[in-house]
Specification:
It is built from 3 helices and 8 strands. With 132 residues, the chain is of the alpha+beta class. The strands form 2 sheets. It has a 5-stranded antiparallel β-sheet, covered by helices on one side. It has a 3-stranded antiparallel β-sheet with strand order 2-7-4, with helices on both faces. Strand 5 and strand 6 form a beta hairpin. The radius of gyration is 16 Å and the shape is elongated. The structure holds zinc ion. The site of zinc ion has 4 residues, from loops. The site of zinc ion (ZN) has 4 residues, from loops.
């Protein structure tokens, strides 16, 4: 298992980790298979979406903040229930196919670590599975 270290600087933020994930694949000897990316945190997530226009990321965050209000009658005493809820909406893992030692991603797709309760030091776990 490999790890990517991510340092978030905002309360909520998308951080493009495509380059680091590609480096993990290229540093391995896997030519064909799958890459599993896993976020071991309950107030963060991972998603694949457009990386060309940063407005897409800020639009997603804006709507997530509307769907999940900062203030509500939350029971969780730690005070970060909105971050936990956003984490479950976005999800904690992604699978990406690897062909000829490269990710199978669309032209505009990037991989984003999603911070919902920053700033914090975070990790993304990467496991590679070779095709038989
Ligand atoms: Zn909490």
């Amino acid at each position: 298992m490999m790890k990517i270290s991510v340092k978030s600087r905002q309360k909520t933020e998308f951080i493009d980790i495509t380059r680091q994930a590609k480096e993990a694949v290229s540093s391995s000897d896997i030519k064909n298979g799958f890459c599993h990316l896993f976020v071991p945190h309950t107030t963060a997530g991972i998603t694949i979406n457009e990386s060309a226009d940063p407005s897409v990321q800020s639009d997603i965050l804006m709507i997530l903040n509307q769907i999940v209000p900062w203030k509500a009658d939350y029971g969780h005493m730690e005070g970060n229930s909105p971050a936990h809820i956003k984490s479950s909406i976005i999800g904690a893992s992604e699978w990406i196919a690897i062909e000829n030692a490269r990710f199978v991603l669309g032209t505009w797709q990037g991989i984003f670590f999603c911070e919902f309760d920053g700033p914090r030091n975070r990790n993304v776990h990467i496991n590679l599975l070779a095709a038989p």
